[in-house]
Amino acid sequence: INAEYGGLLSGAMVQSRTVMVLMIQLAMARAADFRFAQAYHDHMVLQRAPQSASIWGFAPPGRVNVTLASDHVVATVTAPVVQGKWRVSLPPQEASIAAVELTATWSGAGSSTRDIVITDVLFGDVWVCSGQSNMAFSMGVPLVDPAAEATLQRAYQHDPGASMSGQYVNASSAIAAAGNYPNVRLMVVGNKHDCPQPLEDWSANGTGLSVAQPWARASTSTVGSSPDVMGGAAAADGMS
Question: Which residues, including other chains, have CB under 8 Å from residue 90's CB and lie 6 or more apart?
Answer without folding.
Answer: 46, 52, 53, 54, 55, 66, 68, 75, 77
